[in-house]
Design a protein that fits this description.
This protein has helices spanning about 10-20, 30-35, 40-45, 80, 105-120, 140-145; strands at about 1-5, 50-55, 60-70, 90-95, 125-130, 145-150, 170-175. The protein contains six helices and seven strands. It is α+β, with helices and mostly antiparallel strands. It has a seven-stranded mixed sheet with strand order 1-2-3-4-5-7-6, with helices on both faces. The protein is globular. Helix content is about 30%, strand content about 25%. The longest helix has 14 residues, at about 10-20.
Length: about 180
């Protein structure tokens, strides 16, 4: 488990793209996944952002990213956007582990690395993430680590303003504890 470097980006991108195609079933969507293509600009270059990788036998098998990005409405529900301080929220992204390496504590270790990193940054006052409830085990995993702040499955078919997604996502929004 370590912070990603430039040499890790191709393998990290592979883990991410494989996940959005295989696990999510819709594949790469530029409006939601542009960070996957430009990992350096999103995760390595900004001082308060980071990308972590889990490595096994010299190969990247898991990823987790931190970005200084407050959820906005749209595309997220107003209740979510209003909960977090603008410009001072750390969001977790791309917490993915290759299927053959799951259930070994890698995702938890990656999240811990992200939360430890966030705790060292004065900028952040809150930690946000969202997950698709159709991903097996995702809601249970995140529920052990944080609090549900909004479950879009409970407002089925609702959209959240111009530009809101038309995909049938089952998004659950979480707030995690800020470690100081």
């Amino acid at each position: 488990m370590r912070r990603a470097e430039a040499d890790d980006l191709a393998q990290a991108r592979s883990v991410m793209l494989d996940t959005v195609y295989r696990d999510f079933g819709h594949g790469y969507l530029p409006q939601w996944h542009s960070d996957i293509i430009d990992l350096e600009s999103y995760y390595l270059a900004p001082e308060d952002n980071a990308l972590f990788v889990a490595e096994r036998d010299g190969a990247v098998v898991g990823t987790a990213g931190v970005r200084g990005q407050t959820p906005s409405s749209p595309p997220h529900p107003p209740e979510v956007a209003e909960r977090f301080e603008a410009g001072r929220t750390a969001s977790l992204y791309r917490v993915y582990v290759r299927p053959e390496h799951r259930r070994r504590g890698l995702a938890g270790a990656l999240v811990d690395a992200c939360l430890d990193f966030i705790g060292t940054r004065e900028r952040y006052t809150g930690v946000y993430l969202h997950t698709d409830a159709r991903t097996p085990g995702a809601v249970e995993f995140w529920s052990r680590r944080g609090a549900v702040v909004f479950d879009e499955r409970l407002v089925s078919g609702e959209t959240f303003g111009p530009g809101a997604h038309s995909e049938p996502f089952e998004t659950v929004h979480f707030e995690l504890e800020l470690r100081r």
